[in-house]
Design goal:
single chain, about 300 residues, mainly beta, eight-stranded mixed sheet, five-stranded antiparallel sheet
């Protein structure tokens, strides 16, 4: 059967799930390197990762982190059980507030000291999230955020047969109000809490309620078993935090990976069942000659 290699950015790309789409939460066996979800404001130095090194603590260079409803309900990322749901797809994700719960990647910092250009290496620029149970799937959904600006990220799908599929994505800044960021956002109006004294005040201070988590979808080869995902931060002066992964039994438009090519398109329909000549702005139902149907979104 003919296959095609689809490689594209997918953060901010509108993706509609089919009515039969189901999601499986992936338990990460290893790869998380920081605790950046506070569950006890009064014990914040004990319940988040602490570091003496500048810029290595928290999601961003200022040492901010997210928090659970154990701190306060307003602005919380999740409950104390770590559960939260995507507002875009309905996929359920689970984090571990009391353990290492994020893969935090901080790119190289470029600054000037006494008129001289200085490069400060990041805490990590690459990390591998290893699945506790390898799985076959048509796509992977990743939830994360970026700080200090949008980030370009290389994503590698690692299969148990030691083959890989590479692609690149854009992770939007956690405070972005761009239309692309808003479409990719799955959790909004989050607060952030200082894990150390910074410009916002003492450790434990909560700053604003305007931050977001974003969801990305990556197509995979469903004839192969996925064992892990490698994420590489390729932008300078940016920080990225990846919190959770789910898999899906459906493909997404413009994902990455080697995926089965669908048969020819038989027809396009609007949501109210009207046949059209081509995809319309918004949601279009695509019917293929093999009987498969999918929903796609056109901006």
């Amino acid at each position: 059967m003919r296959k095609s290699l689809l490689i594209a950015a997918m953060f901010g790309m509108s993706v509609a799930a089919s009515a039969q789409q189901t999601f499986t939460h992936i338990t990460i066996k290893s790869g998380f390197n920081q605790d950046v979800i506070c569950e006890d404001k009064d014990r914040i130095t004990e319940t988040t990762t602490q570091s003496d090194a500048p810029d290595l603590q928290g999601i961003d260079g200022s040492g901010f982190a997210f928090f659970t409803t154990g701190v306060q309900t307003n602005g919380a990322m999740c409950g104390d059980d770590g559960m939260f749901k995507s507002s875009r797809t309905g996929a359920t994700f689970k984090v571990m507030p009391t353990q290492l719960n994020a893969l935090v990647l901080k790119g190289t910092k470029k600054t000037t000291v006494a008129g001289n250009s200085v490069i400060i290496p990041g805490s990590a620029v690459r990390g591998e999230l290893v699945f506790e149970t390898p799985i076959k799937a048509k796509s992977i959904y990743v939830v994360g955020t970026s700080a200090d600006g949008d980030s370009q990220i290389k994503v590698t799908i690692n299969y148990t047969d030691n083959t890989t599929a590479d692609g690149s994505i854009t992770m939007y800044d956690w405070g972005s109000s761009s239309s692309d960021a808003n479409q990719a956002a799955v959790v909004t109006n989050l607060g952030r809490i200082a894990t150390k004294k910074n410009w916002a005040g003492a450790a434990g201070n909560i700053d604003a309620y305007s931050f977001k988590l974003y969801e990305s979808a990556v197509n995979t080869d469903n004839t192969k078993t996925i064992k892990s995902v490698t994420v590489e931060q390729t932008s300078d002066d940016r920080s990225v935090a990846i919190f959770a992964v789910s898999t899906s039994n459906d493909v997404v438009a413009n994902g990455i990976g080697e995926v089965e090519a669908p048969s020819a398109v038989a027809a396009y329909y609007t949501l109210d069942g009207v046949r059209v000549a081509e995809p319309v702005r918004g949601v279009t139902i695509v019917k293929y000659t093999n009987g498969l149907t999918r929903k796609i979104v056109k901006k």
